[in-house]
Amino acid sequence: MHEMLKTYFREIACIKEEKIPLLSPYFTEKAVQKNEVLLREGEVCKFNYFVVSGCLRLYSVNKQGIENTRYIAFERKFATSFTSLITGKPSIEYIQSLEKSTVLTISKEDFFYLVEHEPAVNKVYRHILESAYITTQRRIYDLQGADSLNRLKWLLDQQPDVFNKVSSKVIASYLGVTPYTLSRLKANL
Amino acid sequence: MHEMLKTYFREIACIKEEKIPLLSPYFTEKAVQKNEVLLREGEVCKFNYFVVSGCLRLYSVNKQGIENTRYIAFERKFATSFTSLITGKPSIEYIQSLEKSTVLTISKEDFFYLVEHEPAVNKVYRHILESAYITTQRRIYDLQGADSLNRLKWLLDQQPDVFNKVSSKVIASYLGVTPYTLSRLKANL
DNA sequence: AATAAAAATTGCTATAGGGCAACTTTATCT
DNA sequence: AGATAAAGTTGCCCTATAGCAATTTTTATT
Fold first, then answer.
1. What is the CATH number of domain A3-116?
2. Architecture of the domain delimited by B3-114
3. CA angle A156, A157, A163 (to 5 degrees)
4. Which residues of chain B have a CB within 8 Å of the CB of A176?
5. Which of A69, A121, A137 is the best residue to mutate to test the B interface, defined by the most B CB atoms within 10 Å of its own CB?
6. CA A10 to CA A151: how far, in whole Å?
7. pTM (2 decimals)?
């Protein structure tokens, strides 16, 4: 198991050192190419991914063929289509690598087995869901209540690094505007 | 403890019958008036609420004084500002009763104590967070990717009962449009 | 039931952001 | 490095939704 994931378990779940070797066999390291798609709409999601390096994004494509990005996961984050993982139904979203990345994969069955039987993994899962709750709640209020300029400013303030790592096209689809509009907003900052 | 909450624990967490009396003392029944505000922006949330009858909504007020509704909880649902409950920080949202309601309250400390020490409550909390994840993910994709008419149609399709119980004003603030626009959309259905 | 207050509707006008087209800049591939 | 494709920018016009004002309908209060 990668050192980064061990540290993650130590910090998030205060895992006992002797438990770490028990978790290792469940995770498999995987190299992912830039723009590689790990999950497509319509497929049932079978893995949870921990990002060691690079980044993954979750997005869907609407009826008009427009991409909407819901989440961008950088290193030291878990990312997957939890909705599909939890319900077992086909995913409405895609998972794509935005860079050459390294991820640790764990199968859905193993993951939920550990959530039930390993307190440290239960705690990590709780942490993931709580964090997701907090960020998505904030995001809904932003999408509903702030205009596009203020959403951009907020993102610039909170995650300035995103602008170096991620294309404007993807940032636009995250902010919920067209690339044209984002370009114009940046010109007016 | 109200029978409805017992049934909830049986169904969601498969709780052992003998455990139910242990949980009862943690919950207090409370009558809530129509439009009563249970939590204001800026206050630290101290309770989790289980709706026995009536309904609660979560909303925020943006800089221009416009209300945005994020969630409406009908009976047999927990509702609270989890963000404030989890972080211990002041809430950015309000909790308000939309009808004369009956709720069961549990304090933040008791709730998180039980999450840690009672597997049934751990499971219920996991269920709450998973359900919230699924609905908010869907909601973000809707707010980003669908126009207001399609958001209205989707709500009519998924939760037709909402239109009987909740004012148009609140539904508009849930869909992310003005009451004017909602009224016009309904005229064109 | 009468009155007041709030909510909902609708005509008119304003505006934020969308979308096309043409151009420039930046990546990608051999 | 040079060729090719993709991404980003910007002028112009268009559309969906916002916002005001006036009216009607519904709801709450005594």
1. 2.60.120.10
2. Sandwich (2.60)
3. 25
4. 143-144
5. A137
6. 34
7. 0.94
